[in-house]
Amino acid sequence: MPAGAGGEIIFEFTPLGGSVKVTAVDVATGVEVSVVGPTTAPQRELERVARGKLLYRLKRIEEGEERTPEKPTPRNPEEGSGGGIIV
Predict the structure, then answer these.
(1) DSSP 79
(2) Which terminal CB of the chain, N or C, has fewer other CB atoms within 10 Å?
(3) Close Cβ partners of 76 (under 8 Å, ≥ 6 residues apart)
(4) Mean pLDDT of 1-8
């Protein structure tokens, strides 16, 4: 069973015209996936598809086929992080 498979999943529904974007986030790992479906689709069906995609991704991470998301390391402005202009 993938890590986080039995854990809490947060779903976010965002309407996009005639479609709805569903984002599923595994609370334990912070891994997230999104799916898009019609606004006429039942909420449970959209959640089922998003959950399945999330569990698939968690399984790939557990098997080492995909890396987990890394948090960016904060940069020190004194060291010159590059790419920016100090005004």
Answers:
(1) G
(2) C
(3) none
(4) 63
- The 10s digit of each residue's pLDDT in 18-71 is 999 999 999 999 999 999 999 999 999 999 999 999 999 999 999 988 776 666
In the chain, the largest separation of any two C-alpha atoms, in whole Å, equals 53
Domain boundaries, the chain: 9-62
Beta-carbon contacts of residue 25 (< 8 Å; ≥ 6 apart):
9, 10, 11, 12, 31, 32, 54
pTM for this prediction: 0.71
